[in-house]
Write a structure and sequence with these properties.
It comes from Corythaixoides concolor (Grey go-away-bird). By secondary structure, the chain is of the alpha+beta class. About 25% of the residues lie in helices and about 35% in strands.
């Protein structure tokens, strides 16, 4: 499966989908978790039989440095406790790639380790950046892993107008973990994982 000819239209569609999520009115979201570093909401996904999650929090750092820690690259594995391996499988342009990564088991291993293959794209958005991704059916599934699937997801990172050294980070995540899992366990894990993502990211940026 050669993705090269379709990387540009896929990136464009992905960006447009994320901007559409970013314009969903507040009344459509239901609070899922409020933590010190982030607030998480959810609404039924239009992509699969699960939820689209929205997470938001202020991060004390400049936009470029925050996004460098989130997108595929050398930083992510260092601080993201959920991610256990990451390989860049193909690079199209500097801001576009296909990566394969694995995640650790969660909830006392009720949720077993997962593998994902995602197309990732980073682009400008307003005064900041958007880094987004979507899973692909690509390559062989590794033994001992269930292949999960990320429907369109991404992170908007824009500087605060009055405090440009601080950024507002807003994420949209809709992950289909697949395998035999109780939906309630998935929902509990997602809200906590997103809140922890912010606290782990903040610690990493301070080091």
């Amino acid at each position: 499966m050669d993705l090269r000819p379709s990387s540009a239209p896929l990136a464009r569609t992905l960006r447009n989908t994320l901007i559409q999520y970013h314009s969903i009115g507040d009344s459509e979201w239901r609070l899922a978790k409020k933590a010190k570093d982030a607030t998480v909401w959810r609404k039924p996904s239009e992509e699969f039989n699960g939820y689209l999650y929205k997470a938001q929090g202020v991060v004390e750092d400049v936009t470029n440095r925050i996004v460098d820690h989130i997108r595929p690259g050398p930083y992510r594995l260092d601080w993201d406790s959920l991610m256990t391996t990451m390989d860049i499988m193909e690079t199209f342009e500097e801001n576009c790639c296909v990566m394969r990564y694995t995640t650790a088991g969660q909830l006392w291993n009720i949720i077993a380790p997962r593998e994902f293959v995602d197309f990732s794209y980073t682009t400008s958005y307003e005064d900041g950046l958007l880094t987004c991704g979507i899973s692909l059916d690509y390559g062989e599934v590794r033994p001992n892993f269930v292949r999960g699937f990320n429907h369109p997801c991404g992170w908007f990172c824009v500087p605060l107008k009055d405090y440009p050294s601080h950024s507002l980070l807003t994420g949209y995540i809709q992950t289909e973990l697949r395998g035999m899992l109780p939906q309630s366990a998935v929902d509990t894990a997602m809200s906590s994982t997103l809140a922890n993502f912010y606290s782990d990211l903040k610690k990493a940026l301070k080091t």
